[in-house]
Structure formats: C-alpha cells, structure tokens
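Dear colleague,

Thank you for sharing your sequence with our group. We've completed the structure prediction you requested, and as agreed, I am returning the results in plain text so they can be pasted directly into your records. Please verify that the sequence below matches your submission; if there's any discrepancy, let me know and we will rerun it promptly.
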Amino acid sequence: MELQNLYKYIDQKKKILDANRPLPPEVIENLREYFLVDWTYNSNAIEGNTLTLLETKVILEGITVGGKSLREHFEVVNHKEAILYVEELILNKEPLTEHIIKQLHYLILKNIRDRDAGKYREVNVFITGSKHVPPMNSLVPPRMRELMDWLYSDEANDLHPIEKAARFHHDFVYIHPFVDGNGRTGRLLMNLLLIQNGYPITVIKNARRHEYYKALEKASVEKDYNDIITLVAEEVENSLDIFIKALGKD
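Please find the predicted structure tokens below.
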C-alpha cells in the first residue's frame, strides 16, 4: 500500500512534466549536462571510483586530472559514451535486447578490460560482503534469456514501470552476467527502461550506497523487492522535482 501511494504521488508529478512537453531546448540542454555529470559521478563512485563530482565534470570536458589513475579516467569517459548510446536507443525507440546489453557493457569496460568487454563471463564469481552467490557461468546465457523473456511478459507489463525497472535491475545484477561492470550496466539499463516510459533520468546517489547494496541483498537473499523498489522510486521522485524546478513550476 505504501508503494502504491508513492507511485500515485510520483505520477502526479510526472503529469506536471508531461503537460510541459516538449520541454524548452535550453531547459533540456541544462538538465542533460547536469545529469550527465551527476549520473556518471554517482554510478562510478558507488563502484569505488575516487574522483570527485568536480573532477568528473573536468574529465567530461576533456581535461586530465593529476594524481588519478587511467582506469578512473576511462570509467568517466566510457560512462558518458554509454549514456550517449542510451540516448540513441531511446531516440530510435529500440527495444532492449541481449545484444544491446552486451554493447552497453562493452562501452563501460573498453580500454579497461578489453578481453571481457561485452562478453558474458566464463568463470564463476563471488560478491564480496554478500551472502548471494551468482549463478555458475554456464547458467548465465539461459538465465539472461529468461530475464529478457520476463521483461516482455504479461507479468512484467502489468507492473508499474518503476517496479518493473527496479526488479529488472536487481535480477540483472543477481545474475551478474559479466566479470566486471555489472552495477554500472545495470543502472544504465534501469534508466533505459524508465526513460522509455516517460520518467526522467534517475540517479542512485553514492550517499545511499550502503542502503542500495542492502536493498539488493535483501531482494537476492529474501526475495523481498520492496526496499530496492522504494529506493528507486524515491530517486525517480527526486529527479522529477529537479525537472519541475527547472521548468519553474510549483
């Protein structure tokens, strides 16, 4: 019931945004630049990247930051390219496929782990600090096919779009189909699904990292999705507030 009330409140705000579409070009450009930096910084920081928000912005502008590793620089540049790819997919109304997932992952990991970029893992992995053990590598392809089947199933389509995106995000990282880069790829996929349904870019903040991991763990171990769905919904609402404020609406 709490989630249903939250959806109702969020969708009231979404109606305000929808009523003002198409957004003025200057508003779109300003928000695009804001979220490009904010999304890239937070998604990388969750995974341990030590660059600050300002350093991330500087690298996105093409400037090298002294004292930081090449990998951290590539993580920023790669994430920007992945966002641009997501924008292209949305513009072309491309349905999500495994090929697209692999391409997104390739963009995230290129120049960092080229051997593994865009390829499902061929080894078994363990997640530090988690009770959840991802499926054996031999099970990754069939589990991913099952996930994609679920995405286009009646069951998934009957869910609220926020719940559908949050559940897909969790189930993707639960499978952990790649050796590295699953979190960043998963958050890109979550956003792709949300934006396709008219919601704004949604950023899970690094400040909520512990809460985010705890919510994913609860869904993995206890099959209770409530916390991860609620967290995603709250961040969707935060983004809607930013968009509405940018439009000068109350």
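Summary note from our side: The radius of gyration is 18 Å.

Kind regards,
the structure core
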